[in-house]
Design goal:
Distance between the termini: 58 Å
CATH class of the largest domain: Alpha Beta
CATH architecture of the largest domain: 3-Layer(aba) Sandwich
Shape: globular
Strand content: 15-25%
Strand order of the largest sheet: 5-4-3-6-7-8-9
CATH topology of the largest domain: Rossmann fold
CATH superfamily of the largest domain: Formyl transferase, N-terminal domain
Number of strands: 11
Radius of gyration: 22 Å
Number of helices: 12
Length: 379
């Protein structure tokens, strides 16, 4: 931060670099004028961004092929289509390579990815989505086969910036890119593809919770509210873009990590849709002045000790009722779906308006003091 004329000016990394080379030769009054000029430039840039908007947009969502990404895409698809926009999806295709990534894949992979893609989704696909009940969400394979959304998958273990992946994105020619829990760092060539820019939903308050698995960190800290942040990506900085909007999700001690992620994800997509509405109307969202800097901290992958603390505190990665609530989205017709011991299904029904669940397989994930340990197939 820089103090000028009795006030405080908050700066991001690019501003800091600018002042590092000039502050010694500028007086306080001159500094204040420079700050005001740079603020006016940013305002003009945002106005120009809004004027480039168009009423019918092509939005590209970049996400991971897990259940969180599938729910986010389904929710966004319905809302964007209703607004007259078009949606495409870019899916990462990564094997966990670092020790931290492998540990997290072992912990959350079974109930967030493999049990859905290997067991439940193939079972659901025996019945067309149109016959599974009103508004039934589609599986990844059903989305790939649909005419109203385009789904492309990255080259195995290659970043979205890899030349073949970048060529795919350029061929799509999206107006706006939305990163939804997407773990690739976007580089300049990719950022430049979309004329309306890149938005990212980050599951944590910034700058306090920068980095990976910050929702789990907030649970460990005992936070009673978690924050989903919508910010722009304008450079290769991690979680440092201008903040467009935030949404708070109240949590209780009984909420699981998956339940919190579902609630937070919906808020992230909702804020993206509101920004799309503003852009379509020729305006753009508010932008907070503060941009977090690298010096303000960054969380890497949770360690084994972090997970030990998580389970020792009585926290849960998921509840059975979280899984049942998700099934309601993909198979709303059928039974009563009244299993609701932690409220997740009730909250999901309030969002979707569905009240039942078909006889989809039981979720065969086993948990214990050391987390998720086994996936044994459908019951």
């Amino acid at each position: 931060m820089l103090r000028a004329l009795g006030g405080v000016v908050k700066m991001g990394p690019h501003d800091a670099a600018f002042y590092n080379t000039s502050i010694l030769r500028l007086g306080a009054r001159r500094v204040a004028k420079v700050v005001a000029a740079r603020t006016r430039v940013k305002a003009r840039e945002r106005l120009a961004l809004a004027r480039r908007a168009r009423s019918a947009m092509h939005v590209l969502i970049c996400t991971t092929p897990d259940i969180k990404g599938c729910i986010a895409v389904n929710f966004a698809l319905k809302q964007l289509t209703a607004r007259g926009h078009r949606l495409s999806v870019f899916l990462s295709n990564d094997e966990p390579r670092s020790e931290g990534a492998q540990r997290c894949a072992e912990m959350v992979g079974p109930h967030e990815t493999s049990v859905w893609t290997k067991s439940i989704f193939p079972f659901l696909e025996r019945t067309p989505a149109a016959n599974r009940g009103p508004g039934a969400y589609r599986t990844w394979e059903e989305l790939r086969a649909s005419d109203d959304v385009g789904v492309i998958t990255a080259v195995k273990n290659k970043s979205i910036n890899f030349h073949a992946n970048l060529a795919e994105v350029r061929a799509l020619a999206p107006d706006l890119i939305f990163s939804a829990r997407f773990q690739h760092i976007l580089k300049e060539d990719l950022i430049a593809v979309a004329p309306l820019g890149v938005l990212n939903m980050h599951p944590g308050a910034l700058p306090k919770y920068r980095g990976l698995y910050v929702d789990l960190r907030a649970m460990l800290q005992g936070d009673v509210r978690q924050t989903m942040t919508l910010h722009r990506i304008s450079d290769t900085g991690i979680d440092t873009g201008e903040v467009v909007d935030t949404a708070e999700v109240e949590t209780t001690p009984g909420d699981s990590l998956l339940g919190i992620r579902l609630a937070m994800g919906r808020e992230g997509v909702r804020m993206m849709l509101e920004e799309v509405d503003r852009l379509a109307a020729g305006t753009c969202g508010r932008v907070f002045e503060h941009r977090p800097t690298v010096e303000e901290g960054y969380y890497s992958w949770p360690t084994a000790a972090d997970y030990d603390d998580f389970f020792a505190s009585g926290l849960r990665l998921y509840h059975d009722s979280d899984m049942e609530a998700i099934k309601l989205l993909f198979a709303p017709a059928g039974g009563t779906g009244e299993r609701d011991d932690d409220g997740a299904a009730r909250r999901m029904r309030a969002v979707t308006g569905v009240t039942g669940v078909t006889a989809v397989p039981a979720v065969p994930v086993v948990t214990g003091a050391t987390g998720v340990t086994d996936v044994t197939g459908v019951a």
